[in-house]
Write a structure and sequence with these properties.
Elements: H1 3-16, H2 25-35, H3 39-72, H4 76-124, H5 128-133, H6 136-178, H7 180-188, H8 190-226, H9 228-237, H10 240-292, H11 298-319, H12 321-339, E1 361-369, H13 373-376, H14 379-382, E2 394-403, E3 408-412, H15 419-425, E4 434-439, E5 442-443, H16 449-455, E6 456-459, H17 470-475, H18 483-492, H19 496-501, H20 519-533, E7 537-541, H21 549-563, E8 567-571, E9 583-588, E10 591-596, H22 598-604, H23 607-623, H24 628-635
Parallel strand pairs: 3-8, 3-9, 6-7, 7-8
Antiparallel strand pairs: 1-2, 1-4, 4-5, 9-10
Helix pairs in contact: 1-8, 1-10, 1-11, 1-12, 3-4, 3-6, 3-11, 4-6, 6-7, 6-11, 6-12, 8-9, 8-10, 10-11, 18-20, 20-21, 22-23
Length: 636
Amino acid sequence: MSMEITAWTQLNGLVHAQQARPFTRATLRRIGEFARPHRTPIIRFLILSALTSLLAVVTPLLAGRIVDALVSGGPPGTVVRIALLIAVIAVAEAGLGLLERRLSAALGEDLILDLRRAVFDHVQRMPVAFFTRTRTGALVSRLNNDVIGAQRAFSSTLSGVVGHVVTLLLTLVAMLALSWEITLLALALLPVFVVPARRMGTRMASLQREATQLNAAMGTRMTERFSAPGATLVKLFGRPGEESAEFAARAARVRDIGVRTAMAQYTFMTALTLVSALALALVYGLGGWFALHGALEPGAVVALALLLTRLYAPLTALAGARVEVMSALVSFERVFEVLDLKPLIDERPDARQVPEGPVAVEFSDVRFGYPAADRVSLASLEEVAALDTREGGEVLKGLSFRAEPGETVALVGSSGAGKSTIAALVPRLYDTDAGTVRVGGVDVRDLSADSLRATVGMVTQDGHLFHESVRANLTLARPDATEDDLWDALRRSRLDGLVRSLPDGLDTVVGERGYRLSGGERQRMTIARLLLARQRVVILDEATAHLDNTSEAAVQQALAEALADRTAVVIAHRLSTVRSADQILVVEGGRIVERGTHESLLAADGRYAELHRTQFATDARAADPVPAAVRASERA
């Protein structure tokens, strides 16, 4: 590797490692744990690196012997043999280099696989509260940028350090043997080679950091503005001219930084090229003077000149090895930071299955408050200076009820009363702070996650779909579903006609968050997914909120069929949808303030009756196209 290439690598490492922070021995031990399964390829890799470095030093010495043979008029056969040996070494060096690169790539990619799988699996175990606080882009960056940064520790830094150490030692030994005077003078120029790299690295790091922040801000802005909801909001309320001007200003600043960085890099490389040329001039001048006075062989001068490039390169690289190592360790620590965030919800080793047969759902004196940020998140993932340590306050306050097998229990009440929180506790999206939630008579904390998922199905308010096909979104609930199963679920949710009309039928991609479908179609798609899953407990959290009256009536018929003989917990603002519930619970302030059937609650003339009167009066006014003021004026 030439001095210029090594200098460029060193400068780049300095630029990207300015934010390195101290690391602990625990970090090194954990890196060792990840590396342990790969110890055999690591050893092979290091041996190949050492052999490659050895061959790189032998070639200049052989070139010097050729020069000596030519000057002394030695036999032609000697020159030919040395030349052939140089050719063989070149071929061997190339072959070992390819093999080393193959091992390096495999080792690095295996490590990436291990780290990504560990982080992905760990993140999947995190509670919903983690995802409600974390910025998605910051989390994805841990799986991409930081994992790749950690990989460099093995695929690049480790081999580089070993190779450079071997090359440096062999080169120094060879140069000192040829001429210790020239070697010491050449080493005296090393500070001129290394110091500018560190100073320039600091300067460029500042520019790079600003450019990174600007690019991140532009990326966040584009992600928000180019999503379907964001683009709609901008078109409705945004100011395109101001949006464009702000974006252009940041992009222009990034352009200016790019120009300054390019000039700084070119200036730095030009200076180092000059130093390299001066060093070679020193070797040729002083070495030539020694050769003319008989103190040095001509071939030794050539060998020293060739070895010089192999001396400065590893010296410069090793001078910055600590920076490269620190940069890789920071990436490891950022990955470990996510892995060290313990999930609030863990499956017990002796987790049970939900009992067979009809299933009851029971809440017994349940108290719950949403956890503080420092229990479920990281400041770096929220992109804030410090996490909020305040608890969210108690949402459910000693709540108890029981939904018997096959019974439908409706939850009604004001917004923010805790209805959706109740729904989230049944599939164990959160754990209670006190009290017990039971499914099939078993505390949900004692049940296995797979068994609970197979038993409890839920349709949420937003009707979320993935940017995948209709088929993929449905089979998420039941991967082994047949074509007939899919069409049956679509028919029962009144979507079969729509899907048959789509360009690719079941294989039509629905778009990000399902935005190629209407709100009602998205919600019915999630209901179809629920019908396909055939779970024994069904939770509907405003499942018909986005449907018009016609679609709502159709879906209610499908839901009546789906809910038959199943335990159901239904949350609804529209009281008309819960009239037939076996039990209606009125939730206010985290407590059940009333319970009974539709008729008994109306007769009691309490909170439910008040909600009923208010809602139907509002619906009547909304349905009347002639305002009351107009009718009054007409009567007058």
